Amino acid sequence: MVNFYADKNYFHGATLGFDKFFSDVDAFFQQVDKFPHHNVIKVDDDSYKIEMALAGFDKKDVKVELKDGKLSIEGKKDKDEVEYLHHGISYRNFLKSFRLVDTMLIKEATMENGILSILLDNVLPEEKKAKIIDIK
């Protein structure tokens, strides 16, 4: 049995133009910090939702950016001048990224009750849809 992930040459020999994808997969498996926690929800065949738990953050502390197919969510919060006796709610600065397929569009981003929600639609253009090729 072939260990597909361990044998990178297997993938590179069977695919063309996926170099960036394999780099993203490597980066994903090397990602150590899981903060902040998030859900990825499949709403239907063409729609998705990312929910991210951001307790202690306000809209002004969060930046959502889409650039070159990479969705980045960054949270920066100034340190409180409060003396905590117990500090169980973490709101350290973070940067979390998601690689999106070229046809993915961000529909909206909302933040309510400490949950950031990002709705995404996969809009496949006609030229990318499956088609039958006439044989001559």
How would you describe the overall organization of this protein?
By secondary structure, the chain is mainly β. It has 2 domains: 1-32, no CATH class; 33-128, Immunoglobulin-like. Helices cover 14% and strands 36% of the residues. The protein contains 2 helices and 7 strands. The strands form 2 sheets. It has a 4-stranded antiparallel beta sheet, with no helix packed on it. The chain has a 3-stranded antiparallel beta sheet with strand order 3-4-5, with no helix packed on it. A hairpin with a 2-residue loop joins strand 1 (38-44) and strand 2 (47-53). The protein is elongated, with a radius of gyration of 20 Å. The N and C termini lie far apart (41 Å). The model has no long low-confidence stretch (mean pLDDT 84).
Q: Which characteristics define this entry?
A:
7 strands; three-stranded antiparallel β-sheet; 2 domains; Immunoglobulin-like; mainly beta
